[in-house]
Design brief:
This protein is an alpha/beta fold. The chain has helices spanning about 75-90, 100-110, 155-175; strands at about 20-25, 35-50, 70, 95-100, 115-120, 130-135, 140-150. It is built from 3 helices and 7 strands. Strand 3 (about 70), helix 1 (about 75-90) and strand 4 form a beta-alpha-beta unit.
Length: about 180
């Protein structure tokens, strides 16, 4: 979060900023001192396959042991969350493709080259050629949050922005796709 280090503490000329972030539940949730975190949405990753390759029933995570997968790099938080979940389910995945590009993961799933695990709000439900299936047993969750400077008194504008973000997150979780900025 950018901060004007030359300004005196409490100086009202420093604008409040709201930053959006994400954190996967298996990772420690260390919040830096002086930062306030406002949770917006707990969002599951979902299984994405070609429309003709799966039925609509929820998938047990262990079933993915037999799939060829497109996963994020293990150096990313999402990649670590996916690998952690697979190891907790008792297997090492068969990784065919490694990419942090969600559009590439969806394209690979659409043409039947791989199965992907993707955050639900990252997918437009009208995307043709894919099937989205929830994980039934060991959900992989990420927390979407807003972060601000911690202050003794609430800034009404910041409070309104966070309330609007919560509303958008709730609406996005119902439609499974947040509108593009």
């Amino acid at each position: 979060m950018p901060v004007d280090h030359d300004a005196a503490p409490g100086n009202s000329k420093i604008p409040d900023r709201v930053k959006l972030g994400q954190r996967y539940h298996h990772l420690p949730g260390a919040t830096p001192r002086g930062i306030a975190v406002s949770p917006l949405l707990d969002e599951p990753l979902i299984v994405v396959t070609a429309a003709d390759q799966a039925d609509e029933r929820p998938v047990a995570l262990r079933e993915l042991a037999t799939y060829s997968l497109a996963v994020p790099p293990p150096t990313t938080d999402c990649g670590q969350a996916v690998l952690h979940a697979f190891h907790q389910a008792g297997f090492t995945p068969t990784t065919r493709y490694v990419t942090a590009d969600i559009a590439a993961q969806l394209a690979l799933a659409r043409v039947g080259l791989a199965t992907a695990l993707v955050p639900r709000t990252a997918i437009d439900p009208a995307t043709p050629g894919i099937r989205m299936t929830p994980i039934e047993d060991r959900q992989i969750l990420r927390l979407l949050f807003a972060a601000t400077r911690h202050t003794e008194t609430a800034n009404p504008t910041t409070t309104a922005v966070i309330a609007a973000l919560r509303t958008a997150a709730r609406q996005g979780s119902r439609t499974t796709h947040l509108p593009a900025p």
